[in-house]
Amino acid sequence: MKQLAVTCPNCKKKFNYYSSEFRPFCSEKCRLIDLGQWLTESYTVPVEKLTEEEIQTLEELVHEKNAEEEKKHHH
Ligand SMILES: [Zn+2]
């Protein structure tokens, strides 16, 4: 397999570009988090194209991320 070390735009983890199905992200989670940010920052993403399950996952990830941000701000 080809090797190309790239940094995930979400979690900044280094991974092999060719080994990820979710590039430019390292994992589905990072891809969804990024999509979640899109959804929260601007509603230009056609939400109706997502399945209910995907939307639920996104909401959970956004909540998780917001909780993390909250923690950071309190320190
Ligand atoms: Zn990542």
From TrEMBL:
Gene3D superfamilies: Erythroid Transcription Factor GATA-1, subunit A (3.30.50.10). One of its GO terms (biological process) is regulation of DNA-templated transcription. Keywords: Metal-binding, Zinc. One of its GO terms (molecular function) is zinc ion binding. InterPro entries: DNA_gyrase_inhibitor_YacG, Znf_NHR/GATA. Pfam families: YacG. HAMAP family: DNA_gyrase_inhibitor_YacG. This is DNA gyrase inhibitor YacG. It comes from Peredibacter starrii.
